[in-house]
Amino acid sequence: MNRAVRKFSRPVRAVILAVLVHVAFGLLLGLSLSFKPQVIKPGIAKPVKAIVIDRSTLAKEETSKKEVEKKRAVVQAMVLLQQAGVPSIGLVTDPTGE
Fold first, then answer.
1. Which of 13, 17, 85, 86 satisfies CB 3.0 to 4.6 Å to 81 for a cystine?
2. Nearest to residue 95, comparing CAs of 73, 67, 72, 79?
3. Whether 75 contacts 98, CB under 8 Å
4. DSSP structural state of residue 5
5. For the chain, how far is it from start to end, CA to CA, in angstroms?
6. Cα distances (angstroms) measured from residue 10 to each of 1, 4, 55, 82
7. Exposed (0-12), middle (13-18) or buried (19+): which is 37, by Cβ within 10 Å?
8. What values do phi and psi take at 13, rounded to 5?
């Protein structure tokens, strides 16, 4: 009789477990459908203020900065020479080149 009970209980247990799994998935599906997603409304976007600069403009700006630095160095050297009492040899001491 022990074998007969085992043969009968295996299919019953399988059916009960299958029903429980389906009920669990049904509950999860029902819960997921009952929640409504939070809708985020987009605000008014501010436009980006950007300027397109090509490499040639950057190169020109860099060379002009280097020239200004060279002129400043020359003027500073001239001022130091004048303070030291060395006579001027006719170089322009104005940094603007006028």
1. 86
2. 72
3. no
4. H
5. 120
6. 15, 10, 79, 111
7. exposed
8. -60, -40
Structure tokens at 93: 């001491």
Among the listed residues 13, 35, 34, 32, the one whose alpha carbon sits nearest the alpha carbon of residue 24: 32
Task: Answer yes or no: pTM beyond 0.70.
Answer: no
- The CA distance from 60 to 85, in Å, is 38
Tokens, residue 48: 């980006």
Please write the tens of the pLDDT for every residue from 30-77.
888 877 778 888 889 899 998 888 899 889 999 999 999 999 999 998
Question: Rounded distance, CA 12 to CA 25, Å?
Answer: 20
Instruction: Give the Cα separation of 79 and 85 in Å (integer).
Output: 10
What is the rounded CA–CA span in Å between residue 62 and residue 70? 12
Q: What's the confidence (pLDDT) of residue 10?
A: 78
